[in-house]
Write a structure and sequence with these properties.
Number of strands of chain C: 10
Radius of gyration of chain B: 27 Å
Number of helices of chain C: 10
Membrane topology (chain A): Multi-pass membrane protein
CATH architecture of chain B: Orthogonal Bundle
CATH class of one domain in chain C: Alpha Beta
Largest sheet of chain B: none
Oligomer: heterotrimer
Shape of chain B: flat
Helix content of chain C: 25-40%
CATH architecture of one domain in chain C: 3-Layer(aba) Sandwich
Structural class of chain B: mainly alpha
Order of helices and strands of chain B: HHHHHHHHHHH
Organism (chain A): Verrucomicrobia subdivision 6 bacterium BACL9 MAG-120507-bin52
Number of strands of chain B: 0
Family (chain A): Belongs to the binding-protein-dependent transport system permease family. CysTW subfamily.
Strand content of chain C: 15-25%
Largest interface: A-B, 91 and 94 residues
Chains: A mainly alpha (302), B mainly alpha (316), C alpha/beta (274)
Keywords (chain A): Cell membrane, Membrane, Phosphate transport, Transmembrane, Transmembrane helix, Transport
Main location (chain A): membrane
Shape of chain C: globular
Order of helices and strands of chain C: EEEHEEHEHHHHEHEHEEHH
CATH superfamily of one domain in chain C: P-loop containing nucleotide triphosphate hydrolases
Chain lengths: 302, 316, 274
């Protein structure tokens, strides 16, 4: 019997098929175009800046004052702010996040974990401007009781809150990694008489290390790129200092600070934020790629 | 290594020693369990403190006047009308950019693309894109949308910036949710003579709506709370008017004029108030923050519940 | 070592023994199949008789499922596949693996039932109607009729008629597999391909499916891959024994099981390997 459908409908199917392939492929292209757009904009708009400012000055100058009459271009002043706030955040997020990951993966009841994990993830869903508000108006006054000299804007306060924000990145990814360590490995160590924490530290942690490392690296990338918390609570003045009790601007806070003012297209201020953005992009790109590679490696290993 | 112990030699107090070790391990484990539990509660507690803090400072400010007033130099008269309308319209632009492109990209990468260097590149690209700081999307929008495409500091430019920002979230959610559909379902459709697109349209998409919807909600909740990219394109201005209405009284009854209107949004308005001195402005900020928190947290809760339900309902 | 792409149809091949009955439905002629550089099927030639059950047996990895999936071009879904030779469907003699032939039209002529029941997460009715809709049947009455007919033929009508619009996943495993059979036969295919259809089912459900397959051959040609020699013996008219991608022996089931011509067949059937 001949069951082929009427050829016209089949032809229509084929047309729809090839049309949809193009539509879907366009979607796939969109993600590439966004990256391309970011890179292109950063390069073209900061080009005049880098043509005017020799690269060496970025490292020689000790101050970042591109808008002054006698400008200084020491990007180190901004990087110091980013480094200190990120460092403070990691001092919170890595120990806390790792302990929570170990606890949730190795100790907690599965039911408890299934509820707690998404709730912890809410911490990274809080709008960052709310965190900034909290750091500036609630945490800083409390910290000022401990450090009486703490200024209204401080990298300590911003960094601590940023640490809370990135805890879920460490915990969630870290817990996923630890839980995918095969039970057999744990049983081997349990059979030798080791305790739960011993197994977690001596067997699970090393077994999941590249997965955990990916979690740390992605958390670092988050902290480096975080903007609103530092812009609100850490201060907007670039300053070459490594003291978390002082106020200083990060790379991101500088971009915000300049954007808040009047920003004519092509002005030196306009160019300088794209230069700062390019530096930021390169830093986070490095961390993101490292995180991606570590994660891939971990998934292949398990 | 500590495991390389010589078990053949058993000194007299060996038994006792072992018992002591085992006991100590039990104590360590119990203590760690307690520590982990307390830290979990404490960390979750921060969320509670945050909400409580905002509620104590801002709840009293939330009333009809606050919702229906424009920002003002006098804190007591100021409100968030232009801010929430702006946020609503922004989300309209963001969703209509991110959802179609994100879902299409997810389908393409998961169902159509063959494994080669190009798709590897796209994969890495998406992983990186998901980690690009939000402010860089703002810089891109400033250079590209505001100036190059001459959209101005408009809802269109802001919405597109946020759309690009959440695109990876939608792509990843779409792919993950397609991946949970077993290949036997695809084969069943193909064996009946479905084309690839028919398999996608009749089966794969309907069966993955739960997962995609979860991703879309998470994406929108992320976009609602974002302020950095909007500040970068210059949205932080005093907006005491509403954009032109999208629906008009004469043909063709819809108007795109609002797309090119300047705007403000909730997080921007909140940032503005946070950075002003004076307790009254700060309670305005708390009120705006409370509204933002309630919106984003309930969207996240909805996403969690949706994901649970989708996982429960479909067993392949 | 590979045969010329399309050998003379009349020449047949030496493994096509004379005990095959008259009407031929599918002629497989010098079929080679490759995944990338790996040759999975080696010059397979056999004539599948119409309106009979032909079983494909052999140890795991012998290529029997691969052969079955050549019949409806399922390999086309995955990259790196390459066919050589011909598979001709009678009476029109179309070579369904010819590159210019649309695999989708091939699949519309060859129904398939899989190892595990794989109903769509839709209603029972929609599962059966789906293939019909793909072929352009949209009239409600026609759909209703054909769905009922298919469900009756799959011996599922009595159990399903009061719950046609409930989700297919509420059915038991055996019922789901019968639903998948109904789905495959609803469009009146020329041939129905079964890929170990009972490997996921309990003995009672299995015997129901077996009865059904024997019933089905009244109106459709059946090819079935099975691991279960007893099953092949119970339900098939013809049996093909494959080993390492080659067709070792093909003949009437009774003769194959009682008096195999090749030593490998005898070893396999008597349980000495596989």
């Amino acid at each position: 019997m001949e069951v082929s459908p009427p050829p016209s409908s089949r032809r229509l199917d084929k047309t729809v098929e090839s049309f949809m392939v193009w539509v879907l492929r366009a979607g796939g292209w969109a993600s590439v175009l966004v990256t391309f757009g970011i890179v292109l904009t950063l390069v073209t708009e900061s080009w005049p800046f880098f043509r005017e400012v020799p690269l060496i000055r970025l490292f020689q100058d000790t101050m970042w004052t591109p808008l002054f009459a006698q400008p200084q271009y020491g990007i180190g002043a901004l990087l110091a702010g980013t480094l200190v706030t990120t460092g403070v955040a990691l001092l919170v997020a890595i120990p806390l996040g790792t302990i929570l990951a170990i606890y949730l993966s190795e100790f907690a009841e599965p039911k408890f974990r299934d509820w707690v994990k998404p709730m912890l993830e809410l911490l990274s869903a809080v709008p960052t401007v709310v965190y900034g508000y909290f750091a500036l108006l609630t945490l800083t006054p409390i910290l000022q009781k401990i450090f009486p000299d703490l200024p209204q804007f401080s990298m300590l306060s911003a960094g601590l809150i940023m640490g809370v924000m990135i805890v879920p990145y460490v915990t969630s990814l870290g817990e996923d990694a630890m839980r995918s360590v095969p039970m057999l490995l744990r049983e081997g160590a349990f059979a030798l008489g080791d305790g739960k924490l011993g197994v977690a530290v001596r067997v699970v942690f090393p077994g999941a290390f590249s997965g955990l490392a990916a979690a740390y690296v992605l958390a670092i990338s988050r902290a480096v790129g975080e903007t609103m918390i530092v812009a609100i609570a850490a201060g907007l003045q670039p300053k070459m200092t490594f003291n978390p009790l002082e106020s200083a601007a990060t790379v991101t806070a500088f971009i915000v600070q300049v954007s808040l003012g009047d920003l004519p297209h092509g002005s030196i201020g306009y160019q300088s934020i794209f230069a700062a953005g390019a530096v930021l992009f390169l830093m986070t790109l490095g961390f993101n790629l490292a995180g991606h590679v570590l994660r891939k490696r971990f998934h292949r290993a398990t | 290594m500590s495991y390389e112990r010589d078990f053949t030699v058993r000194p007299e107090p060996y038994q006792k020693q072992q018992e002591g070790r085992a006991h100590r391990r039990g104590t360590i484990d119990r203590n760690f369990r307690r520590l982990g539990f307390l830290l979990t509660l404490a960390t979750l507690g921060i969320l509670g403190i945050l909400l409580l803090n905002l509620a104590m400072n801002g709840l009293a400010r939330i009333d009809w006047q606050f919702m229906s007033s424009f920002p003002s130099r006098r804190a007591g008269e100021a409100g968030i009308l232009s801010a929430w309308v702006g946020t609503l319209l922004l989300m309209l632009v963001t969703a209509s950019a991110a959802i179609p492109f994100g879902v299409a990209a997810g389908i393409y990468l998961e169902e159509y693309a063959s494994k080669n260097r190009w798709t590897d590149f796209v994969e890495i690209n998406i992983a990186n894109l998901a980690g690009v700081p939000s402010i860089l999307y703002g810089l891109m929008a400033l250079g590209l949308f505001v100036y190059q495409f001459r959209f101005g500091q408009s809802l269109l430019a802001g919405g597109l910036a946020l759309g690009c920002l959440v695109l990876p979230i939608v792509i990843v959610a779409t792919r993950e949710s397609l991946r949970t559909i077993p290949s036997s379902i695809r084969e069943a459709a193909f064996a009946l003579g479905a084309t690839k697109w028919q398999a996608v349209w009749h089966h794969l998409l309907p069966y993955s709506t739960g997962g995609i919807a979860t991703g879309v909600i998470l994406a929108m909740s992320r976009a609602i709370g974002e302020s950095a990219p909007l500040i970068t394109i210059g949205a932080l201005t005093f907006i005491a008017f509403l954009p032109p209405a999208p629906l008009i009284s004469h043909a063709p009854f819809v108007s795109g004029e609002w797309l090119f209107s300047p705007f403000t949004a909730l997080p921007i308005q909140m940032f503005n108030w946070v950075s002003r001195p004076g307790e009254e402005f700060q309670s305005n900020a708390a009120a705006a923050g409370l509204i933002l928190m309630v919106i984003t947290l309930s969207m996240n809760a909805a996403a969690i519940l949706l994901r649970r339900r989708a996982q429960r309902n479909i067993t392949w | 070592m590979s045969l010329p792409p399309v050998p003379q149809p009349s020449a047949g091949s030496e493994t096509t023994t004379s005990d095959a009955p008259a009407a031929i439905k599918v002629q497989i002629q010098g079929l080679n199949f490759f995944y990338g550089n790996h040759q999975v099927l080696r010059s397979i030639s056999m004539d599948v008789p119409a309106l009979q059950v032909t079983a494909l047996i052999g140890p795991s990895g012998c290529g029997k499922t691969t052969l079955l999936r050549c019949m409806n071009r399922m390999h086309d879904l995955y990259p790196g596949n390459r066919y050589e030779g011909a598979i001709r469907v009678q009476p029109d003699g179309t070579d369904i693996i010819a590159p210019e032939v649309d695999p989708i039209q091939v699949r519309m002529r060859f129904g398939m039932v899989f190892q595990k029941p794989n109903p769509f997460p839709k209603s029972i009715y929609e599962n059966v109607a789906y293939g019909l809709r793909l072929q352009g049947v949209n009239q409600r009455r026609e759909l209703d009729e054909k769905v009922e007919k298919a469900l009756r033929e799959a011996a599922l009508w009595d159990e399903a008629k009061n719950r046609l619009h409930q989700m297919a996943h509420n059915l038991s495993g055996g019922q789901q597999q019968r639903l998948c059979i109904a789905r495959a036969i609803a469009t009146d295919p020329d041939v129905v391909l079964f890929d170990e259809p009972t490997s996921a089912l309990d003995p009672i459900a299995t015997s129901k499916i077996e009865e059904l397959i024997v019933e089905l051959k009244k109106r459709v040609t059946v090819m079935i891959v099975t691991h279960n020699l007893q099953q092949a013996g119970r339900i098939s008219d013809m049996t093909a024994f494959m080993y390492l991608g080659e067709l070792i022996e093909f003949g009437e089931t009774n003769r194959m099981f009682t008096n195999p011509a090749k030593p490998q067949t005898e070893d396999y059937i008597s349980g000495r390997f596989g």
